[in-house]
Write a structure and sequence with these properties.
Layout: E1 2-8, H1 24-40, E2 46-49, H2 53-61, E3 68-69, H3 78-85, H4 92-96, H5 98-113, H6 124-139, E4 145-150, H7 152-162, H8 167-174, E5 182-188, E6 191-199
Parallel strand pairs: 1-4, 2-3, 2-4
Antiparallel strand pairs: 1-5, 5-6
Helix pairs in contact: 1-2, 3-5, 5-8, 6-7, 7-8
């Protein structure tokens, strides 16, 4: 059996004009994870990531280089979904207040999954398919240990899909995913099983590093 870990990127710049960049905390989280992997002797044979800036910055802070990138590991465009929901006039508190943002985002994703938000740039069905394709590509390798840097929504969807859970489960998982958390899968001959979700052992002695956005 081979092992694949999905790592959520470090904390990004929530509430700023450009979310797609790490904060100083995000870089510290990434470095702490790399230190943990080194201590435990977990060294990847293959490193993949999405194509977003926050993905590449997470790997850079981990002092790792990707072997390849796959856009299927990119996050859904939550700014676009919210813009469609609010006819291009997303309220400021939805963009900048965390509690309000995640409450509204949850309802928005459920609407999207149910076939609403038809003007969105990406459909829910398309998101499911591209994330599934990315996971399949990551498992089509001779590597025994595969490390992937991606985003919370992608992790939530891939965990839900692996468990054959309802679509709505993805939302609940998505909103739990901590920055630089590790979700572990084992795979062989196209079959995949979940072995761990949202683990942050690298924060055990540094709880101040914990964040969700």
């Amino acid at each position: 059996m081979a092992e694949l870990i999905l790592i959520r990127h470090g904390q990004a710049a929530f509430g700023s004009d450009n979310y797609d960049q790490l904060t100083d905390l995000g870089r510290h989280q990434s470095a702490a994870l790399k230190q943990h992997l080194d201590r435990t002797g977990w060294h990847p044979d293959c490193i993949l990531s999405g194509t977003m800036v926050r993905h590449s910055q997470t790997l850079k802070a981990m002092q790792l280089e990707p072997d390849d990138t796959h856009a299927g590991f990119n996050e859904y465009d939550f700014h676009n979904l919210l813009s469609v929901r609010f006819d291009g006039q997303t309220p400021t508190d939805v963009l900048q207040d965390r509690k309000t943002h995640f409450r509204i985002l949850r309802d928005t994703i459920l609407d999207w999954q149910g076939g609403g938000l038809e003007a969105a740039e990406e459909s829910w069905i398309s998101f499911k398919q591209r994330t599934s394709d990315a996971m399949s590509a990551a498992m089509t390798t001779q590597a025994r240990r595969v490390l992937v840097v991606t985003s919370g929504g992608v992790i939530g969807q891939l965990v839900a899909a692996t468990l054959n859970a309802p679509s709505a489960t993805m939302v609940d998982l998505n909103l739990q995913v901590k920055n630089t958390s590790v979700s572990t899968f084992v795979f062989s001959k196209g079959r995949v099983s979940l072995n761990g979700f949202n683990a942050t052992p690298h924060f055990d002695l540094q709880p101040e590093l914990l964040s969700y956005s």
